[in-house]
């Protein structure tokens, strides 16, 4: 690609063999390119970001899922978009251009669309996909946002964008295809939907 990069893998004791595969990749590509930074148990997405940032040496950080729901082929587009507009954040969007979702049932699609629609109406965030996590951040911007964000779970990604807008950071978007995982199950259930609505109302009241 012509870009200097490192891949930092944060594994929270996954039962699916993530750590073993990462160790194999580390042997193939070297520990300067593949940095495996495991944790003994699941400690949450926000703390995983902070843990990863401590080891990142670059000026920009791309956050993505390691199960290939987020395809690496979009990363060069993120980089191009960032350079084009000198953006602080470039967010992958499933809801603009040729973006889309594959492998979700109708219920999951309706929940995701509904969540985004309600959020757009209440918060006017200036981005079309608030609940996705495939994003490029300037490192110092990500650090600042992590200091400000208080949400957990499904609301966390949304708060990152809302706080970014509040702090005056610029946001670009790249259409992406999201492919649902082949193995494992979604964690989205009734409790997550209730906590999402609570978080949304909290953001509405405080931003």
Automatic annotation (TrEMBL):
<protein>
    <recommendedName>
        <fullName>Dolichol-phosphate mannosyltransferase subunit 1</fullName>
        <ecNumber>2.4.1.83</ecNumber>
    </recommendedName>
</protein>
<comment type="function">
    <text>Transfers mannose from GDP-mannose to dolichol monophosphate to form dolichol phosphate mannose (Dol-P-Man) which is the mannosyl donor in pathways leading to N-glycosylation, glycosyl phosphatidylinositol membrane anchoring, and O-mannosylation of proteins; catalytic subunit of the dolichol-phosphate mannose (DPM) synthase complex.</text>
</comment>
<keyword id="KW-0460">Magnesium</keyword>
<dbReference type="Pfam" id="PF00535">
    <property type="entry name" value="Glycos_transf_2"/>
</dbReference>
<comment type="subunit">
    <text>Component of the dolichol-phosphate mannose (DPM) synthase complex.</text>
</comment>
<dbReference type="GO" id="GO:0006488">
    <property type="term" value="P:dolichol-linked oligosaccharide biosynthetic process"/>
</dbReference>
<dbReference type="GO" id="GO:0005789">
    <property type="term" value="C:endoplasmic reticulum membrane"/>
</dbReference>
<keyword id="KW-0479">Metal-binding</keyword>
<dbReference type="InterPro" id="IPR001173">
    <property type="entry name" value="Glyco_trans_2-like"/>
</dbReference>
<keyword id="KW-0328">Glycosyltransferase</keyword>
<dbReference type="GO" id="GO:0035269">
    <property type="term" value="P:protein O-linked glycosylation via mannose"/>
</dbReference>
<dbReference type="GO" id="GO:0004582">
    <property type="term" value="F:dolichyl-phosphate beta-D-mannosyltransferase activity"/>
</dbReference>
<dbReference type="InterPro" id="IPR029044">
    <property type="entry name" value="Nucleotide-diphossugar_trans"/>
</dbReference>
<comment type="similarity">
    <text>Belongs to the glycosyltransferase 2 family.</text>
</comment>
<keyword id="KW-0464">Manganese</keyword>
<feature type="domain" description="Glycosyltransferase 2-like">
    <location>
        <begin position="3"/>
        <end position="145"/>
    </location>
</feature>
<dbReference type="GO" id="GO:0006506">
    <property type="term" value="P:GPI anchor biosynthetic process"/>
</dbReference>
<dbReference type="GO" id="GO:0046872">
    <property type="term" value="F:metal ion binding"/>
</dbReference>
<keyword id="KW-0808">Transferase</keyword>
<dbReference type="InterPro" id="IPR039528">
    <property type="entry name" value="DPM1-like"/>
</dbReference>
<comment type="pathway">
    <text>Protein modification; protein glycosylation.</text>
</comment>
<keyword id="KW-0256">Endoplasmic reticulum</keyword>
């Amino acid at each position: 690609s012509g870009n200097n990069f490192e891949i930092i893998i944060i594994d929270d004791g996954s039962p699916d063999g993530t750590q073993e595969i990462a160790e194999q990749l580390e042997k193939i590509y070297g520990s300067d390119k593949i940095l495996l930074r495991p944790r003994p148990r699941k400690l949450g997405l926000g703390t995983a970001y902070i843990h990863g940032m401590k080891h990142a040496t670059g000026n920009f950080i791309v956050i993505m899922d390691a199960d290939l729901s987020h395809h690496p082929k979009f990363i060069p587009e993120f980089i191009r978009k960032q350079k084009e507009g000198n953006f602080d954040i470039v967010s992958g969007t499933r809801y603009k251009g040729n973006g889309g979702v594959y492998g979700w049932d109708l219920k999951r699609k309706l929940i995701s669309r509904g969540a985004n629609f309600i959020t757009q109406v209440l918060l006017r965030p200036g981005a079309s996909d608030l609940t996705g996590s495939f994003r490029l951040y300037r490192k110092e911007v990500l650090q600042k946002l992590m200091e400000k964000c208080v949400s957990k779970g499904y609301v966390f990604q949304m708060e990152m964008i809302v706080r970014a807008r509040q702090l005056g950071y610029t946001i670009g978007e790249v259409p992406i295809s999201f492919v649902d995982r082949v193995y494992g199950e979604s964690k989205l259930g009734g409790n997550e939907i209730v906590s999402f609505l609570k978080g949304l109302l909290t953001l509405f009241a405080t931003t």
